[in-house]
Amino acid sequence: SAPFALIAGPCQMESRDHAMMIAERMKRVTADLGIGYVFKASFDKANRTSLKGKRGIGLAEALPVFEEVRREFDLPVLTDVHTEAQCEEVGAVCDILQIPAFLCRQTDLLVAAARTGRVINIKKGQFLAPHDMKNVAAKVTESGNPNVLLTERGASFGYNTLVSDFRGLPIMAETGLPVVFDATHSVQQPGGQGGSSGGERRFVETLSRAAVAVGVAGLFIETHEDPDNAPSDGPNMVPLERMPDLLKRLKAIDDLVKGF
Amino acid sequence: SAPFALIAGPCQMESRDHAMMIAERMKRVTADLGIGYVFKASFDKANRTSLKGKRGIGLAEALPVFEEVRREFDLPVLTDVHTEAQCEEVGAVCDILQIPAFLCRQTDLLVAAARTGRVINIKKGQFLAPHDMKNVAAKVTESGNPNVLLTERGASFGYNTLVSDFRGLPIMAETGLPVVFDATHSVQQPGGQGGSSGGERRFVETLSRAAVAVGVAGLFIETHEDPDNAPSDGPNMVPLERMPDLLKRLKAIDDLVKGF
Amino acid sequence: SAPFALIAGPCQMESRDHAMMIAERMKRVTADLGIGYVFKASFDKANRTSLKGKRGIGLAEALPVFEEVRREFDLPVLTDVHTEAQCEEVGAVCDILQIPAFLCRQTDLLVAAARTGRVINIKKGQFLAPHDMKNVAAKVTESGNPNVLLTERGASFGYNTLVSDFRGLPIMAETGLPVVFDATHSVQQPGGQGGSSGGERRFVETLSRAAVAVGVAGLFIETHEDPDNAPSDGPNMVPLERMPDLLKRLKAIDDLVKGF
Amino acid sequence: SAPFALIAGPCQMESRDHAMMIAERMKRVTADLGIGYVFKASFDKANRTSLKGKRGIGLAEALPVFEEVRREFDLPVLTDVHTEAQCEEVGAVCDILQIPAFLCRQTDLLVAAARTGRVINIKKGQFLAPHDMKNVAAKVTESGNPNVLLTERGASFGYNTLVSDFRGLPIMAETGLPVVFDATHSVQQPGGQGGSSGGERRFVETLSRAAVAVGVAGLFIETHEDPDNAPSDGPNMVPLERMPDLLKRLKAIDDLVKGF
Predict the structure, then answer these.
(1) SS3 readout for C73-100
(2) Which domains does chain A have, with CATH numbers?
(3) pLDDT in tens, A235-244
(4) A-chain residues within 8 Å CB-CB of D103?
(5) Distance from the B148 Cα atom to the nearest Cα atom in chain A, whole angstroms
(6) Quick one: which of A128, B21, B147, C11 has the most CB atoms within 10 Å?
(7) Complex prediction ipTM
(8) pLDDT band at D51, cuts 50/70/90?
(9) Greatest pairwise CA separation for chain C in angstroms
(10) Over the stretch B34-85, which tens digit does the pLDDT of each residue have?
């Protein structure tokens, strides 16, 4: 029944200055609204549709930036890991390690992430049912780490389309773990542009409202000052300037339903 | 931006007294909350899973009850039609004629319903995309009847399961027509019990909250004083005694988001 | 283990001469190959995507043509019925009455068709699982008519797409009823062209080969001398001139697997 | 137009003796039928549903067995890789490196596998469309390795169910790469038994027949002398004793259609 926390930031960490700019802007917006904020960025987009897609600045360059964001803005930071080898290094700096949806069944990655003792945010695979996530979460908790978040990000629905099944939020909450709704990837159209993924930004608010009304512990929304020119996930990122109004509405719904 | 209206009642019209009891109870509940109310009951369940399923009391017996509900409680009434021949007779009494989801592409039925001049509520077929409904609606509006409601009731998702795609609500609203969310049939598991359909009543509130937060003109919720012994759709009807609290919460969300 | 029968013809009955031309051509082709042939045409396309779609010549004009095809070519004929009222009239002439997929759960239509004593071909709804069809078939058989065919024509798969689940053929065959594969509508893209349905003719052979290899009692393939200018289902009809080679290949597979 | 090759073996490498027994049996069966044979076993099941699922004997123990199978029976061998680090070591021994479906978008794994120069068999993700695989394959071919196989193994269809879309075989073949059909995993019911995956062995022949009739370069079928007691994928493995008859039928269909 605590207010939702927001995990937000650019899809990719593009540069130190870009990350700092977004962290600063989002910290201000969320502080004004009384929303807990976690800065998010990916140092590597490891599963682009095409070999030609930009992948980000890499782990070595990104870690000092995550440290600076934490120190400078006093913010927890989240990033995704793709291999066992990355877990320890990322875990030394970041507060939350995120398991990508495609990798949510990879036992060794989950166990290596668990061993860092950090919070582990597991994205639900597009190929899994909500009730399947209890087995996935147990790979982390039975490895001795009880700090798990489960994130809904859409289920495969025919080809190149995802659908968000909101029954999944209470089903996953039955595990006792906090449930997050990822509005950005839920509106993705995987592979929908041939050589890259499409998306429909206009439905981010639609689906976020639904999630908050159903009840979530957190929201995940990617944002960018100029999404149409972002190196990845542009079609589904929310412009930074629209975040204050969007979050204000979502916070009002959250306040209402958490009071029921 | 008007408050949502509620279409509610038992799945089947079981008897005159049963209909009157539910209409009376629901009128009181909705009046207390300032919610517009439409009484709903089916005189014939024309597409039961099995030949053995109970079908209802029939048109001849039901029409006088609809008249009595209208007169006694000053309520608009809705029922579903299955053949062209029924439209005129039903249209002489009922305020809203509903086209069942399986029949939403039957041109002659849509045109016959349109000609009554009544409001036509078209359920979206489980096999249609939200954007397909503009063609369906046009069969009514181009027949000279602009009074159309479009109702979301779930899309086929694998076998014996439906999923509610909330992107569909704004997509259907682009037609300019009022959009209704049917929470009862969205939680149905078609054919899920072998000889009859199953359902998960516990998700009616989940999906209704989501729909209202996204924004709807109406909600459709079937209710019964003893759902587990109802002749059809028992697994997904809401017990009558739980309707006041449920509607209170939904109305609060509606008030909030309509004020944005 | 009998060779497959072929149900084929134009999507719509366009005119007497057109029907006679196709029946004559197809009779010759199938006789050469030793394939049993049923002439198929629709007198009314009752569920077009749009009100503007052409619907066919109508029942009154079509029935004498069906009679002439039967008499002239000594062929059984099949057409689809949409209302109870049509069943008796159609049953007086046609050998097989077909229940459209959208209507396969309409009890009264199934019972009215059953009462004609004719063979009833029920298309599986796009919204049903193969195992659901035993309940559908029972509505006919329990009405005293054991002569039922079950036809697979694709299941909803996301939006505007169907998928053919070939596990469905043996599952439906467990009813003891002959199972038909409709290759034409399985490659349909419902509503896929906005105001009408699309389709991918190039996969008719792909899916027909698969069906025959799995084992079917019948195939359903619509054909036209000029599909791209046909009034409906053009994108998924097979050009008449390609039918001989297609059927020759399918017959060879059928001969082989029926000999296992 | 070459006859199909068979990739077959136990789901897990259970022991040296078990692997040798199956390789020996399958070599004999395939030689009798004139089918090219690739021995398959997994040294590690890296993505079991639950932490409790058995994972196999591990890479260090498995590699000498693969070497012995190659040497003793003069057979090519295939196994799956899960991390970049494994690729070089596996590539030193095995003829074909297989990319698991969940991992088919992991760029670094694909590139590391490509660099071994071995044949790379990429399983199509359950979350991908057939036309998406051209981008996946290009990650290998643009890394300088043209030796790629694409394997269909079912697409997500609702929850805990897969469906095989046979249109996908010719679509993937448009890349010019050989296409394999994995009949074992296509009949899997992911997570369908709560703590492990279910499956329906009885449809392996159904779907294999369909695939061969459509036309494939290869078939992938897991087999075991006692599937019901196998450590993984038991519900969908074919008993070893049934393989000769199954393959005989599939080879007959393949011979026929490759002659068209």
Answers:
(1) HCCCEEEECCCHHHHHHHHCCCCEEEEC
(2) 5-258 (3.20.20.70)
(3) 999 999 999 9
(4) 102-103, 106
(5) 23
(6) A128
(7) 0.96
(8) confident
(9) 49
(10) 999 999 999 998 888 888 888 889 999 999 999 999 999 999 999 999 999 9
